[in-house]
Structure formats: C-alpha cells, structure tokens
Amino acid sequence: MSKKKIKVLRFSVPKNEAVFREDDYGRKTINIHVPMEQFVQQEYDEDVNVREHPESLLRKRIPKNIASSVLNDPEDFHLKNGGVCILAEDVTYEGGKNGEVVVTLTKFTGSHALHGVIDGFTTTAVVKHTVKNSLNSDNPVDFSDSYVPVEIIAGVNSRPEMAAIAAARSQGISVTDTTIANWDHEFDTLKAVMGDSEGVVGWAQNDTHKDPDDGKEYSYLFNPNQLIGRIYVFHPNHGVMTSEGRTAFKSCLAASTNSGKMTEKYLHPEFRDGWEALLPLVPEILELWDYVEHKFYEMYIDYGKEFGPVAPIFSLKNGPGNFVFWVQSPQTKATRGVRAKKLIKSEVRELHFSNYTSEMPHIHDAFLYPFLSGLRALLIQDDDGTLRWSKDPKRFINKNGKYLMETLFGLMDNIQYDLTLMGKTAKFWKKMHVEVEKLLK
Q1: How many helices (H) and strands (E) are present in the chain, helices listed first?
Q2: Which range among 60-74, 175-189, 379-393 shows the weakest confidence by mean pLDDT?
Q3: 25 burial type by CB count under 10 A (0-12 exposed, 13-18 middle, 19+ buried)
Q4: Average pLDDT of the segment spanning 304-330
Q5: How many CA atoms lie within 13 A of 58 on its CB side?
Q6: Closest Cα to residue 123, out of 185, 243, 39?
Q7: What is the pTM assigned to this prediction?
Q8: Are strands 84-88 and 147-154 parallel, antiparallel or unpaired?
Q9: Band of the pLDDT at 332, cuts 50, 70, 90?
C-alpha cells in the first residue's frame, strides 16, 4: 500500500482573530485574515478548482484590477477582495497571542482531487505574483499591514459534496466597472446634459424598464459603454480623427466594440478636460447619429445602389448587385441569408435620441462608426477649450451625403463587405475623416 501524501499549510493568526465553527456532521470552517507576505510563501494546489488558470490569465482585466489593489491599496485589500476558499482534510487552530492555523491536505492532486483552492485561485495567483515581484524590486511596497481573507473548510470528503460547493461559489456575477461608476455618480453630469433617457439607456448592470403600455419588462437599448462610444468618436484630445497618422485612430476603434474600455476612458483623468469640453455638445452628437440613420436610405439610393431586405444591415458577401443580408429575428436571434435586388423598406422606426425616424430596421455599427467619425473634422476647438461646429453637420450631410456614401461603400467593396474588418481597420476611419477634410476646403 502506497503511503498517503500529506501537505500542510501553516498560518500565524495572532490575538484570537480566527473565527472557528464545527457543525453536527464534523465539518469544520475557519475564517482568518492571513498576512499577505506570509500568504505568498505557501504553495497552493488548483486541481480541485473548476477553472483553469493559465499564466496568460494575469493579463486579463480582473487580474489586473486585483494586482492594482495589491500594489496601490494593500492595507485595504482584505476589505475589497472576496479572498480564497480552501478545502482540506482537517484544520486545527490554537488561539492566543501566537495562534497558528494548521491546514492538512491529502487528496490535492489529479482529476479526483478533493483538497486545495476551490474558489479564489485567480486571487491566489495574482497576489503571489504581484507581491513577490514587488518585494524583489528596487522599490518594494510595504505589505506589513496587508491581509488576504482565507476560509478553510475541512471534512468535505466526497466529489458530489465538493462539486456542490464549487458550483455554488462559481455562480456569482461580477459587477462591472460601469455599474460601479454609475453607483458612484460618475455619470451624473452626462445624464444631466442628456435629459430624459428613460427606456433608452440602462445605466446599471442587468437594468430593465417597464413598458407603460403592456407592463412588461424590457432591456434598455443602450448601456453606458455603447452610449459613450458614440460620443467618444468626437472626443477632442484622444482618438481624434486627424490625417496626421494612424496612432490616433487606435484608441478610437475601441468605441466600435462597445467595450468596458469606454467607461475607462470616460473616467481617466487624462481624458477629463476633453470630456468637459465635449459634454455641452452631447445632445447634438446623439441627435446627429439619429440623423445619419434617418438619412441613410436616402443617401444610399442617391448614390445609386440597389440592395435587399435589411434587418440588420448588412453582410454584403458577394459585392455590388448581388448582396447577401443577414436577417436577425428579434425574438429568436436566429439569422439567415437573404438575396435580393431591391430594398424592401421596413415599417417606420422611431430613433433613440430625437424625433427622427428610419425606414430601415437597423444599420450595422460597421457603417455608422466610420461615417460619424469622419464628421469629427467638422468640430474645432477655440483657444479657451470650447468646442463648436465649423459647419452645420446636418446641412453638410445633406449636401455631401452622396459623396460620403460613395467613399464608404468604396471601402466596403475593397474588403468584400467584411463588417468586422470595416469596423476595426484604422485606415478606413482615417479615410472617411480625410474625405470630410477635403470637402471643407
């Protein structure tokens, strides 16, 4: 008979700070705050964990946030982080001034492991990596008053019981940075300049609204990142659509992804002056988006194209004259390709931030973002930082819409109507801006 492998973790927890419980089934639970420098000296096993934790994980957003908390607010880490949960064979605690928690693990490796870090291994990996790197640097952070919350559960000795614990602790929904920002009133100024956004913008995670007519709950049409993305293409200092180079376009492309990066850019101090200058124009900018949707069909027909049913527009796979549109059912989200030669208009659709309407079910962002980003060239900034339009943007569109559509669809022809490529290729955004600049001369 092979000898049972045993691993022991030891944590010093002075001043009777541990909370110890034992239930009627012999299962023991202990909650402690482990000094951070002591925590990183232990070796932890993750075979029991339901998630994989490759090294590349450390480059993701949440691990980066954890690392930032470790380095910038180490004394508050135990307040901000949910900590680590370890399953063990046994746990003992001797209280007093030099109390020690002794954690014994036996089944900690392999696909049938029962012991190890069942929850919080991302925290474990990030804390170990960050603290050790800091302590080995020329300017180490002081972690002397920093703690990691740790819960140890002993006596769970079956896979079904362990699986139930793992499932329960893996069901939490991470609160987004955008929701935290809204809770902290970071969007109040933006809300104020927008006026009534009822039924249009859901500012908090999982937010819904009731339809006054049928009483049913519906999701909002926009979340804050999508809203900020529409405004960001006009930001005066970052992602500016100049013809001076490509670098400026990269930050602006994030707007088309509607990602959490938009909230990050809205809150970053480096962007603050630009947002303050831009905020008075927010209602006009959002109305301008509606106006482009309102005029899109007319501009396209004026350009001379014929195309088929759209909902949403488009995935034009086969080039001019033989378009393939992907029609998406609002109910089932199922998609299907439709070939046609002429546009069949939808019922009139009310737009979001104005009294304008559209005869098209939906226009894909891959068309709208580059088109609107080109109009950034119409904005000029005075010496006092005030932003204003050099030309009335609606009149500019009325006069030059046909030419702008020719430019836009010329770019689409070149890439065989690849929507993803259109929305994320900097040179296309740059081209639209350059053409607007030419029309202003």
Answers
A1: 16, 16
A2: 175-189
A3: exposed
A4: 38
A5: 10
A6: 39
A7: 0.67
A8: parallel
A9: very low
Could you give the angle at the alpha carbon of 299 between the alpha carbons of 296 and 302, nearest 5°? 150
199: confidence class by pLDDT, cuts 50, 70, 90: low
90 or 257, greater pLDDT: 90
How far apart are alpha carbons 103 and 106 in whole angstroms? 10
CA distance 419 to 257: 12
Sequence-ordered strand ranges (E) for 203-322: 208-210, 217-219
Alpha-helical (H) ranges within 15-142 are: 36-39, 61-72, 77-80, 121-135
Q: Strand 100-105's sheet: what is its strand order?
A: 7-12, 100-105, 90-94
Tokens found for residue 430 = 């740059």
Q: Determine if the peptide bond prior to 314 is cis (ω within 30°).
A: yes
Reduced 3-state DSSP string for 363-401: ECHHHHHHHHHHHHHHEEECCCCCEEECCCHHHHHHHHH
Alpha-carbon distance values, 116 to 23, 44, 104, 156, 255 (Å): 21, 7, 10, 12, 41
What is the pLDDT confidence band of residue 288, given thresholds at 50, 70 and 90? Answer: very high
